[in-house]
Write a sequence for this structure.
């Protein structure tokens, strides 16, 4: 079993920022202490100190070790991120102004991303027009959608529930409305959905869609860097309703 | 409190540069001047205007973000606002900022020179700056409206949008020339016009910082110039350099853009670091801790800063190998900045510290800039960046580094050199109140953005999911506090210029050469070019004097007892 990308990103984030907070506190405490202790009033005669080579060497070497350690842990996580498991299913993602289209291995297309539970999924990402960035905040990963090129990343759908994808690279007027729901559903239901869905459920007139208002994205579950909340919602929502949701997009 | 180690012959009642008779009078004595001091002040006036304009745009954007959906403006307006806010702040304020204003006014005096090496070129740079600035604003009022691309002008969107991208881009192109020529001028001045005895390692650290910056300006800016020209050509004739439908490559644009724009980040921050190295010794009354490491770290930043542009592109699809190399180099470039911070704090040790307004801004800078620098580490890290890049985390990070770094030190510089500029003093108490107000507003405004970014709020979003609203509200309230602080500061300074108390040549007890000439300085600064015999932060004479005073005081106290 591969380590969880979500977990690795969060752990790296907090290790680096933990060390950073410690450094910040040290610097600030030293600064405030000196300003207080050696104020003009308390210390009228300053001392003529021009430097100290030993100290300079120490505070060069120690930070080098610290940043190399930071680099190492982030690199280890990165290697896992880029090394797609061989069993990963592939979903082709195409960005355009201003929506996402998902193409499955049976060539069927949808603008909702339905994924089987407990699977490794590789996204092959490209764009039809300008730059976009395929961003899954709850999975802690993004990669740009570049016209004429293909980028990739992979995730593991470890938890059932509804998530969302959005665009993180500025792409014009409705950049902030490029949400796409992601439903992670049990594998058997996913197979049914994949087989019964029509060949293309995406809206054809997508190039100039009217902006999706925020209330329309309310169906997208969003408060969910909290994984506890995710599980709760899964037990309540039947995945079948998600399937219906996609069916309504039928022509 | 004149420094005994520097020989400064003084003549009585020489008119200062405001009152000296020149060829031209009235407005022309400014518009046709070649005096580095007047040019510095002209930059300051223009920059104050541009800064306040872009600040207003920022405040309006924050107001729009108060509620999800439309609050006060449409998406198109919002997109244009963040573009114009970025273009003005970056190209008209942060990049030229400290160099053009304080570099022009102070640097020649710190070197013991009468002016910069090429005074006429200096004036021309100011005109180029003004033309660029006016063009950027001009795009507001004509044709299809302000560019809506973001200040990065990423292709192919910048090629395809119908807005006035070409004008904005051309403005940035012209501003680039202003920057190159200013850099060239400072480089030559530093090489050729140092006064007798001013060896390289006796130069003030502000000069070192400007020197490192000027090299970046001269070497990196041509790259953005040609890149922006290509954008214009591509828009006009479809030459197909960046647009993939014409056989171009959008990543090529990003490479070229960041090969300049990352070093440009150091054009923005290095001069500020130089000012910090001036202010701290003056108010700690002792030499800077680690002069050579600080000077060398400026050069190291300038050098390594060239090699890390790829960290802006970790998610763009560049190869994994190059991502690893760029990430490693990014962690390395963090070191010299860290070393500077350590040296500044160490300078405070066993000093005799007076927390005046410029010193207060500087201490606040150390705290805020450290947050900015340290949060950059998670953005330079390979895996966390893929979550955090292009979110509010980045927005928070660069406002902490740029505004908290260059911005706060620009404010500190004005307060520090204000007596030299105008021969008058502002109200110290009000200046400090403004500084605290600014610091509180700043953190209330930008800190919530770190949280939003970590939670997944992408940047450049006109609309957002309701769960983020609480953070947006806090942030918007912060913008009101920050702006009121800035306005208090500006009014206090304007009042100081109009009716401040007259001051002396050296009100702070500074040891660099600008404090040996009258405030404001005469036309050519020095009657006789001075000769320097010590390092820039030599306080030994002062220390002797203070020690003597201290002993005398103790004796009199003993006598009393």
């Amino acid at each position: 079993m591969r380590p969880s990308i979500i977990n690795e990103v969060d752990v790296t984030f907090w290790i680096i920022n933990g060390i950073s907070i410690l450094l910040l506190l040290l610097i600030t405490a030293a600064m405030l202490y000196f300003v207080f202790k050696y104020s003009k009033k308390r210390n009228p005669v300053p001392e003529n100190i021009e430097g100290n080579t030993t100290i300079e060497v120490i505070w060069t070497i120690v930070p080098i070790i610290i940043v190399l350690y930071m680099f190492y842990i982030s690199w280890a996580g990165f290697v896992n991120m880029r090394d797609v498991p061989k069993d990963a299913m592939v979903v082709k993602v195409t960005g355009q102004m201003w929506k996402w289209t998902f193409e499955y291995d049976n060539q069927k297309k949808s603008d909702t991303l339905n994924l089987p539970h407990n699977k490794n999924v590789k996204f092959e990402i490209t764009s039809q027009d300008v730059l976009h960035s395929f961003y899954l905040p709850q999975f802690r990963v993004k990669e740009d959608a570049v016209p004429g090129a293909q980028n990739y990343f992979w995730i593991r759908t470890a938890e059932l529930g509804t998530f969302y994808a959005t665009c993180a690279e500025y792409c014009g007027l409705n950049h902030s409305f490029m949400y796409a729901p992601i439903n992670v559903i049990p594998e058997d239901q996913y197979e049914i959905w994949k087989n019964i869905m029509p060949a293309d459920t995406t809206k054809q007139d997508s190039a100039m869609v009217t902006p999706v208002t925020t209330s329309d994205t309310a169906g997208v579950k969003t408060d969910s860097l909290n994984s506890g909340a995710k599980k709760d919602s899964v037990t309540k929502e039947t995945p079948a309703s998600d399937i219906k949701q996609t069916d309504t997009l039928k022509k | 409190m004149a420094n005994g180690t520097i020989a400064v012959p003084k003549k009585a009642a020489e008119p200062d540069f405001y009152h000296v008779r020149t060829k031209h009078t009235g407005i022309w004595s400014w518009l046709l001047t070649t005096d580095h001091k007047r040019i510095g002040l002209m930059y300051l006036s223009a920059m104050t205007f541009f800064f306040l304009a872009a600040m207003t745009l920022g405040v309006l954007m924050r107001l729009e973000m108060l509620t999800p959906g439309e609050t006060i403006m449409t998406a198109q307006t919002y997109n244009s606002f963040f573009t114009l806010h970025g273009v003005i702040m970056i190209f008209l304020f942060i990049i030229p900022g400290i160099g053009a204003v304080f570099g022009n006014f102070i640097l020649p005096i710190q070197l013991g020179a009468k002016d910069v090496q090429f005074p006429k070129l200096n004036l021309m740079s100011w005109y180029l700056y003004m033309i660029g600035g006016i063009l950027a604003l001009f795009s507001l009022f004509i044709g299809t409206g302000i560019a809506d691309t973001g200040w990065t002008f990423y292709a192919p969107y910048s090629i395809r949008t119908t807005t006035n991208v070409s004008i904005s881009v051309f403005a940035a192109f012209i501003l680039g020339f202003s920057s190159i020529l200013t850099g060239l001028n400072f480089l030559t001045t530093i090489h050729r016009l140092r006064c007798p005895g001013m060896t390289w390692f006796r130069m003030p650290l502000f000069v070192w910082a400007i020197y490192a910056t000027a090299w970046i300006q001269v070497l990196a800016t041509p790259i953005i110039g040609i890149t922006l020209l290509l954008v214009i050509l591509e828009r006009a004739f479809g030459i197909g350099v960046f647009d993939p439908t014409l056989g171009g490559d959008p990543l090529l644009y990003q490479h070229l853009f960041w090969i300049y724009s990352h070093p440009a980040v150091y054009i923005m921050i290095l001069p500020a670091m130089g000012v910090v190295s001036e202010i701290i010794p003056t108010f700690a009354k002792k030499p800077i801790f680690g002069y050579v490491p600080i000077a060398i770290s400026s050069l190291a930043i300038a050098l390594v800063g060239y090699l890390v542009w790829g960290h802006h592109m970790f998610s763009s699809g560049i190869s994994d190998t190059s991502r690893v190399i760029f990430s490693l180099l990014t962690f390395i470039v963090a070191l010299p900045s860290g070393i500077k911070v350590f040296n500044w704090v160490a300078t405070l040790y066993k000093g005799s510290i007076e927390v005046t307004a410029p010193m207060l801004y500087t201490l606040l800078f150390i705290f805020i800039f450290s947050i900015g620098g340290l949060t950059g580490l998670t953005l330079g890290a390979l895996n966390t960046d893929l979550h955090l890049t292009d979110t509010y985390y980045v927005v928070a990070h660069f406002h902490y580094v740029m505004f908290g770094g260059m911005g706060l030190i620009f404010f500190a510089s004005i307060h520090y050199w204000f007596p030299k500029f105008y021969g008058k003093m502002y109200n110290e108490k009000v200046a400090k109140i403004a500084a605290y107000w600014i610091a509180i507003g700043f953190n209330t405004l930008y800190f919530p953005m770190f949280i939003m970014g970590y939670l997944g709020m992408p940047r450049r979003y006109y609309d957002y999911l309701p769960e983020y609203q609480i953070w947006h509200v806090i942030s918007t309230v912060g913008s009101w506090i920050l702006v009121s602080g800035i306005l208090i500061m500006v009014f206090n300074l304007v009042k100081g210029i109009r009716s401040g108390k007259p001051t002396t040549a050296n009100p702070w007890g500074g040891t660099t050469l600008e404090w040996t000439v009258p405030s404001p300085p005469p036309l050519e600064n020095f009657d006789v070019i001075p000769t320097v015999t010590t390092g820039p932060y030599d306080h030994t004479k002062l220390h002797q004097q203070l020690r003597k005073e201290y002993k005398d005081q103790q004796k009199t106290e003993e006598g009393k007892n």
